[in-house]
Every structure is written in structure tokens, then in C-alpha cells.
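Database export, one record per block. Field names are fixed; values are copied verbatim from the stored entry.
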Amino acid sequence: MFVLFVCFWLHPAISAAQQVLDRSYWERSAKEDLAASLQMTLNMNVAKNVIIFVGDGMGPNTVTAARIYRAGESSYLFWEKFPHVGAVKTYNNNKQVPDSASTATAMFTGVKTNQNMLGLDATVNEFDCDSSLREEFRLKSIGRLAQEAGKSTGIVTTTRITHATPAAMYAKSAHRDWECDNSIPASASKCKDIGRQLIEDLPGKDFNVIMGGGRQILKTNSTDLPEDPIVMKKSCVRTDGSNLIKEWADDKAARGLRYAVAENTKGLRDVDVEKTDYLLGIFANDHMAYEYKRDTSDAGMPSLKEMTITALNILKKNDNGFLLMVEGGLIDKAHHIGKARVSLVEVLGFNDAINATMKLLQENGIEGETLVVVTSDHSHTLTISGYPTRGNSILGLADVSKVDGMPYTTLGYANSGKENYHYAVLNGSVVREDPSKVDTKSFEYGAQAAVLQDENKHGGNDVFVYAKGPFAHLFHNMHEQNYITAVIKYAARLGEFQDIDKEPSSSSFLQPSSATVIMSLTIVISLLNLNKFNIS
């Protein structure tokens, strides 16, 4: 039966008739799942290392669609087999449906804030430079807390390194778009742009690893290299004459640190991780290329997987441990332009990076001391409609409308840009395009949207959080998004929890409760009872 399951998992193209499994399969598979769950133990060790993976815009429907796209309905993405799962509410202080800056601030600082804000509490309003400079409103990220604890730190992304999610790890800005000097309004001249904050200020200047795109943010007039034509939009371009990449290298040299700079795949592969403690890899002027279009040659851009593994090989040398944030940022960008298949491929690249990470942790014997968290900052308006036959391509047709007699696709968007608006006026009536006459499986196809917008907007869904490692069980029900920070700080003994093991008053807080003891006894009894099923 196990062989049958593996074959089914690897071959999504098996016909619907071949996918029918008898009742004994489902009964046994449920018992096997139950047995594995009952054998699960709680890891109560201090987390020496923390890795947080953020799939930007990777809401529940995106995860489901990517799973089916990859290997069929009964398959799993790698992180979906993590032992602990919870959910988080993504609204921010002033919006039901948030942006990435406010949600990343919640995840990395433990405080929910206003739309478009980075590293500042909700006291500061959008564009208020003066208030953003007041120390009492500025928030400390888990990246800085990890540095204060002597850990190595890093950020890896497929977006600009100054984009909203990575920027929330280091920047304090009254608007997420203030990425370079050219985007700072005259009224905010006292405020430092996000690129300069990364290179000049803490915690950015002390990150051991920085990898992503955004060369034109860091280096004046860096617009000469070819870019991916379907990246959503260009960001600002630095015009103040500075070269922050050189400034980063000069700083490391002045401090006698071992460092390297990489600008393409070959440059990254040439880095001697054993002799490098600081790495700056900037691989694109703007965002990095979508995975399906990425130049895989030495002159091209590395994959998220390769960046992540290189980062880990540098960070893991620290005896005090490390904290790494990895963002699959183009999942979101592809959704914004309504290209569902592009987004799903980005999810699979994200999946590859997580899979490779867990293998590296196992091979180095540090899996048990590493808290790994996989989550999303927010959702998108991707929909999955009924009722396609099992085994049908997730990019294909779902059914035929009983109202207009026209087929429709399984995937769609509640709102999106003009390429997703497949309606026209014919003889005075609005008619829908027949998707059976176009290639809905193309990377360029924009899945049908109900409402015409300039782009697909974010969704307000709750998102999942998957965890493995020390104190991963603290993710167990519906949580506020800022709770992610609290768990990371507690698990790794950062910030206010750094001395908790030394405090006598904390003993009752740290010791298993009576409920935990009862649960453990119940597990033992249940395992004994499972012997009746001959489950090993």
C-alpha cells in the first residue's frame, strides 16, 4: 500500500479511474497518520537557531493549488508535514486587508502597525517622518535581538532586498516605498532611505548574510543590465552618487571581517563559506527573475534554494547559533499581475528551499536545536472553483456554467488587471470568453477575474503557520500575527526572555502543567491500544 501511495504522489497525471482506492486504504492511512501523531513528542529545548520562511502572498488557496499542481490532490508540500500547525490573523492596525510592510513588522517585531509602515508602532502615521524618528515609537526586530544575543543573522529574498518583507527586519520607515534617495519627499528630508538604513545602521550593517535583488537601490544609476519584463513595476533608482555596495565592503574591510560580494550565480558559488563570515549578494537591479524565466547559467541569478543553503553554511559556523529570514517574495508579485501558474512555480521554488534546508539541518545534526517556521504575510484573492474531476489539471477547466453554458477555469481571481478580465460586449450583452479556446495552462494566461482592477489586490484570509523544532508546539490554534515574534523570542530566549531560565519565579512557567502530564499519559495508553491494529 505504501508503494501505491508513493506512485500516486509522484504521478499526478494518473487518470481519475486509476486514483480510486478502496476503503481499506483510507482506513489504514488514517490509522497510520494517527499512530504518527500519537508518537509525537514536544521539543522543550532552547532554540539555538531560528529560521523563518515567509511565502509572500501565499494564502491557503495558493498552497492548495501549488500542492495539486506539483503532484496531485493527495500529495503534500514539504512543510505541510511539519508536526505543528496554527493559523494567524493578518489584519493590521488600520486595515482589514493588509500590505506586506505592516504584516512583516508584526511578524518580526511583535507589534501590529499601520498600512505601509516598517518597524514603527501604530502611533506613527503614514509619511510622518518626524514621528518616525522618535525612539519611543521605533520597534526592535528579532534580527537585532538575535545579534544582541551573539547570534549570526541573515536575510534572503527573491525581491529587492529593500522591499517590504526583508526591510521589516531592519528598517524604521514611515513609508515602505522610501527605498532610496529618489523616493524620499522633500518634507521627509530628515529621514534616511531604507537602502542606507540597511548598509549604515543596526541591525542591517551587522547582518552576516544579505541576498536578493535591488542593485539600483544601492548603487547609483544601476539600470544597465537586462531585467525580467513581467516583474510588476520598477522601484526608485538611486541618484545621489553613492555606491552602498562598496560602502558595505569598505566597512567590513575596515573592521577586519572576512567578507565576500556576489552579483551572479558563479559569484555565489565561488564564495568559500568556511572563510566568509559576511556575504552581500545582489543579483538583480530590481526584483529577481521569476523562477520559470530565470537564467540558470553562471552569469544568471541563483535560485532561492541555492541562496538559502549558502546562507546557512555561513551562519551555522557560529557557536551561539543563528537567525535567518527567507522570503519567497515573487509568489506575491506573480499574483499581483494575475499569473497563477507563475505564482505556483514560485511556491515550488520556495518548497525546494525548505526541503534542502531540512536536509542540511539533519546532515549537520542541528535539526533538533533549530526552530523552523513557515508562514505567509497575507493572502491573495485566488479562488478554486467547483467541480473539476479529481486528477484534472489545476490550471484547466472546472466545469460548464449552468447559466451561460460557457466553461470556466478552476482557478480565478476575485479582482485583477485587464489581462484577467475575460468579458466583452456582444450584441448589447456582456459575454464571457470561452476558456476552452485558449491555453489556460500557459505562464502568460491571466486567470479570470470578477472585478477589473489595476492589479490583483491582497486577500484578507487568515494564513497558516507551520513549525518544527524547539517550542514549535506553541503554534497550535488561531493566533494574532504578532504572536510569531513572541514564540521565536521565547523559544530562542531573546529579548525579555533571555534570562528566564535563571529566574526561580519562572520555574512554574517552564515546567509541564498537569494537563501536559495527563496528555502524555493519554498518549502512552493510546499507543498501547494501537497495538490492536498491528501498526508499527
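Remark 1: The chain is about 30% helix and 15% strand.
Remark 2: The mean pLDDT is 91.
End of record.
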